[in-house]
Amino acid sequence: MTLVPHRIGVLALDGVVGLDLGTPAQVFGAACTADRQPLYTVDTCTPGGHPVRSSSGFRVLPDHGLDLLTTVATVVVPGLHGGPPMTDGTVHPAVTVALRQAHDRGVRIMSICTGAFALAAAGLLDGHRATTHWAHVEPFRRLYPQVDLDPDVLFIDSGQVLTSAGVAAGIDLCLHVIRSDHGSEVANRAARRCVVPPWRDGGQAQYIERPVPRSPASGTAATREWARQQLHEPVTLRELAAHARMSVRTFTRHFRSETGLSPAQWLLQQRTDHARLLLETTDLTVDQVARRAGFGTTAALRQHLHTRIGVSPSTYRRTFRRPPPSVDHPVVGSATTA
């Protein structure tokens, strides 16, 4: 039997942000099996199937109307600039109905950036934790006080409904979904095809003072790459600073401005992510994983993994270690099985 890709519908509203509109097709389109079979299909719709204006000076001519949302397993609402969801807290009644019906059927629903305004206007975020672009926090809170808004994270996965911060955080959310659906190997492969980092933790701060070093020679990027190769060894702050040829104080300041994290926080994040990858993709024992990721003991790995994602190593392995999709066992595109 032929593998059946998980079907995604992108709902573009008037004022849609061009980058956000293209992100789902680009990122999910890069996710495939080892033999290059696509794991997702992405289609775009608008209310009535009519053209909508983007925020970037072009119009979007969709192939579908809102009826698309009755056939997909995931709905993505990209960001928008202006319009009723951002000015008076409303969205077109037909959009509200389509989103609520999809939600009631168990469809996974995602927003990128200010797309969260549309989800909130449809009532899908009431009483739930959500995020949006940090620059739009005050109007969001004024229009939707019933939403528990957290502006200090890249994305929030609340189960059926997921929201992300602005711009590049939409890429992070899409990769997170691919990782949740198919594991780290597939997500990392998709990230490589998109030439983006494979993983930024959803709890990472949105606003980083200087996200890109002014020059590779003066930044900490080379030292971070070196540290990733040393995860199995204890690495001290003094060793990191020495590798970067900086004082500890200067290194710490540069490191935080470039990553938004202290060296210790970043290193712990890298160790945890490496342990997750090993749990998903190898037959190593949990004790071996703990040593190779630099935690030293199973107890330390268990503690840090539970603190970060709320599960034990063995539970994580059972949940996320998935056999590769087989043509004899199709992956049905439903929100409950994805």
Descriptors:
six-stranded mixed β-sheet; alpha/beta; 10 strands; two-stranded antiparallel sheet; 338 residues; globular
Would you write up a description of this structure?
- The protein is of the alpha/beta class and 338 residues long.
- The C terminus is likely disordered.
- The radius of gyration is 21 Å and the shape is globular.
- The two termini are 18 Å apart.
- It has a six-stranded mixed beta sheet, sandwiched between helices. It has a two-stranded antiparallel sheet with strand order 3-4. Strands 7-8 form a two-stranded parallel ribbon.
Strand fraction = 5-15%
Q: Strands across the major sheet, in which order?
A: 2-1-5-6-10-9
Q: Tell me the Rg in angstroms.
A: 21 Å
Number of strands: 10
Distance between the termini: 18 Å
Order of helices and strands: EHEEEEHHEHEHEEEHHHHHHHHH
Overall geometry: globular
Structure annotation, total helices: 14
Helix content: 40-55%
Helix/strand class: alpha/beta
| Average pLDDT level | 87
Could you give a short account of the major beta sheet? 6 strands, mixed
Q: Which runs of at least 5 residues are low in confidence (pLDDT < 50)?
A: 207-216, 324-338
